Amino acid sequence: MWDGEAARAALPTVLEGFGVTLVATVLAFAVAMVMGLVLALAQRGGPAWLALPVRGAAGFVRSTPLLVQLFAAWVLIPGLDAPTLGVLVLGVHYATYLSEVYRTGIDAVPKGQWEACTALSLPRRRVWRAVVLPQAVRNVLPPLGNYAVSMFKETPLLSVITVHEMVHEANTFGSTHFAYLESFTLAAAVFLLASWPTSVLIRRLEARLAH
Amino acid sequence: MAEFLPELRRAVPRLGEGLLTTVEATVLGAALALLLAYTLGLLSRSARLPVRGAVRVVVEFFRGTSLYVQLFWLFFALPMVGFRLEPLVCGVLALGLNFGAYGSEVVRGAVTAVPRAQTEAAIALGMGPVLRLRRVVLPQAHALMVAPFKNLLVQLLKATPLLSLVTVPDLTFQIDQLRSSTGATAASYLLLLGLYFGMAVVLSLLMNALERAAKARLGQEGGT
């Protein structure tokens, strides 16, 4: 049954893993945000010979399991250490989600805005930077937040390529001290404590932006 | 690479078993998730505060604690308090509980999105609460639910390779065996990714057909 002593011993290990999880999430999400925008712009504003293959590749990555992508990248791409590779694969996977978020956000900018730009004969670059993207940001903030939380909860997958994130640490502690109950329950509690307040904040942001 | 094709041919029965296990986990997990999604989603609109509160806690708990932790908890920690479940059962439970919690939000949102006037009209016609839900509210909510459910279903399918981490001999497990026996890493993983992509496409097409059917029943645009 529950052993308070073991739980206290597991806590520093689990928290150390939490630090790794947090850093991995932040870096991977930065990759995803930038690459997702590139993917979205290539599909929305790029020429057809570029847009179609990009859409196909993004669809393939989006529809296949992250775990298998991690395994494949781990054995097929040499020369990168596990944390770097993990952050890149996680970032690319989520970039394919975020590109859809950006696309919907861009499509939701009223047509009249584009027409006004044409009427003012603004240069293309200026249309995107000064008119469309600032309005699209408003549409995409809440979904971006939700994806950040869900990415945070998917980082335990990086443990399969030997990244020492929280679930990996909990598993190791559990097997060496025979205290799986304590270590995994702590890991679950940390996830809940970190992701629940964030979801509440995002819901508030969503409600405020809706007006 | 030269040995890969004959080895692949020999491995076909085992790959078939693995595929069947993956399909089984997906179907059972999705069935449990759907059941939970409806139960929790409808209860979350209850007039009684304690019921709503309890549902909120359950949903936030299963959404907030990560599918991976839930699966490992069921597989590693639960035996320590005296319950040992089959690995496949752990997988189906974890998938069902996690995606059921996400799905309950879809059900709640869709039911809330049905215009209030529909309920009021049903009350005016003297329909009871059950009949109202069954004949007026749910058919309209269904059409709104299908698209988000499609996303969740594909997510659930994509989460099934996790089961190989808790010793379930699913498709990922079997192809990993093939990979280590042939050494054809690229070909094996490409095959695995291709199979998952195929399954995701089939699921999407099925759900699109369901959405058309649900809309057609309401005589809406997009139905056939």
UniProtKB/TrEMBL annotation, chain A:
Coiled coil: none annotated. Residues 18-202 form the ABC transmembrane type-1 domain. SUPFAM superfamilies: MetI-like. It is a multi-pass membrane protein. Keywords: Amino-acid transport, Cell membrane, Membrane, Transmembrane, Transmembrane helix, Transport. Its main location: membrane. It comes from the Bacteria. Gene3D superfamilies: MetI-like. The chain crosses the membrane at residues 20-42, 183-202. It is found in: Cell membrane. Belongs to the binding-protein-dependent transport system permease family. PANTHER family: L-CYSTINE TRANSPORT SYSTEM PERMEASE PROTEIN TCYL, MEMBRANE COMPONENT OF AMINO ACID ABC TRANSPORTER. This is Ectoine/hydroxyectoine ABC transporter permease subunit EhuD. It comes from Streptomyces flavochromogenes.
UniProtKB/TrEMBL annotation, chain B:
It is a multi-pass membrane protein. This is Ectoine/hydroxyectoine ABC transporter permease subunit EhuC. CDD domains: TM_PBP2. The gene is ehuC. The keyword Transport applies. Belongs to the binding-protein-dependent transport system permease family. It is found in: Cell membrane. Keywords: Amino-acid transport, Cell membrane, Membrane, Transmembrane, Transmembrane helix, Transport. The chain crosses the membrane at residues 20-43, 55-78, 186-207. Gene3D superfamilies: MetI-like (1.10.3720.10). SUPFAM superfamilies: MetI-like. Its main location: membrane. InterPro entries: AA_ABC_transptr_permease_3TM (IPR010065), ArtM/GltK/GlnP/TcyL/YhdX-like (IPR043429), Ectoine_EhuC (IPR014342), MetI-like (IPR000515), MetI-like_sf (IPR035906). It comes from Streptomyces flavochromogenes. Residues 19-203 form the ABC transmembrane type-1 domain. It comes from the Bacteria.
